[in-house]
Amino acid sequence: MNIEVTKSNIISSLFWKFMERIGVQGIQFIVSIVLARLLRPEDFGTIVLITIFIAISGVLVQGGFNTALIQKKDVDELDYSSVFYLNIIVASILYIVLFFTAPFIAAFYEDMQLVLMLRILSVTLLLAPFSSIQNAVMGKNMQFKKLFLSSVGALVVSGITGIVLAISGFGVWALVVSQVINQLMNTFILWFTVKWRPKLLFSFERVKSLFSFGWKLLVSSLLDTLYTNLRSLLIGKMFSPAILGFYNKGEQFPSLFVSNINGSIQSVMLPALASNQDNKQRVKEMVRRSIVTSSFIIFPMMVGLAVIAEPLVKIMLTEKWLPTVPFMLIFCASYALWPIHTANLQAINAIGRSDIFLKLEIIKKIIGIIILIISIPFGVYTMALGVLIGGIISAFINAYPNLKLLNYSYLEQWKDISPSLIISLVMGAVVYSLKFLELLPLLNLTLQISVGVFVYISLANIIKLECYTYLQSTGKEFFRRRRRVSYLHK
């Protein structure tokens, strides 16, 4: 495949991945606002406690095999079917474990209603294997249009279900049922849109071969999931479900934007990088483009969200959620670092160095746990600040291997992201000053967002920011291609 064709595929895939993420992001945003207004912070804190155990189990079900399937060049039906049956076995075992340990988990948190909730929500583990291979097939072939249909369709149905149940007074059960419905619908849609079906094939040798790459990613993901949720586990035990709800909601807003946008880019970049893994210079160019593009989009969003956090929470969620604001400010700064984290890590995975990936995760988690232990005596806000401090340190750790692997230095990475960071900070200062106009809250918020977008784009245009002009030309090229293809089909 030549570079021009690869570029075309990447652009097309990015379009559909962005469409999927924007659709999901928009629906999730609306649903979360409605549910936050209808439900109590304690309800969200309670659901966080049980979803932690589902998230950890979900990592074990995937086992790093999805990434291994995408990374492997000559994957075939024997690989797909072997992983499918293995996933079913692992998911069944984990469901049984969670079913019987649910009473002990509930007793630990002194809330026996968690027993039934955890048992019902664990059903999503049994559904996951029936969509995991479909996701791998889509990722391998960059068929992100199908992912758009499944994700948005599932979220619409589950979101409506959750809102109806919340209005009907079902409380936290509205969140439980909506999550189960979301997984069920996503699985159902993918099963019929991705034309892959398991065959009566299984090979321990193929599983072993994939696992030799995937086990390092499994351990890395497990460490990351345990570490990411450790604070929530401790906050839920040491403080209260309400405080955990504020903490979670403060993280949810920046996460909603960053994970969707940055995740879109990285989902497309992994198969694209993997297909060029033997050309280190090409991989470096693609990683640089990923970091520059992600930073250009994410930096202004995080700066802007931090500046408007308080009025946004008041208007969207009501004043009962105001304790969320300090957490939101901290997590905006933390999530702004994600383009650096993920682009560097995807490059390491794409060239097949999952051993380095695992070593990095172990080092980062040891440092993170030390920071967490130190922060605990100082309270929940200091514990949140520990995430930011750990993130700054992790950015340097994640970038280090690519000094040698790709000859991509710290200085080069800083030069790539600094223009977007600088104009984002300038934009933030302008937007913050508008709060002193003392207009009606909704009017002032609308003005801040509008001025922020205008100032950022204007500054990018004035200084002829390379990423901005690249995105402009790429967008024009993509839509020209689509018009040409549409014309030829007529």
From TrEMBL:
Membrane as UniProt keyword: yes
Membrane topology: Multi-pass membrane protein
Protein known as: Flippase
Keyword annotations of the record: Cell membrane, Membrane, Transmembrane, Transmembrane helix
Gene Ontology annotations for the cellular component aspect, listed alphabetically: plasma membrane
Membrane spanning stretches: 21-39, 45-70, 82-109, 115-135, 147-167, 173-194, 290-309, 321-345, 366-397, 417-434, 441-463
Compartment(s) where it occurs, according to its Swiss-Prot or TrEMBL record: Cell membrane
Pfam families from the UniProt entry: Polysacc_synt_3
Keyword S-adenosyl-L-methionine: no
Family: Belongs to the polysaccharide synthase family.
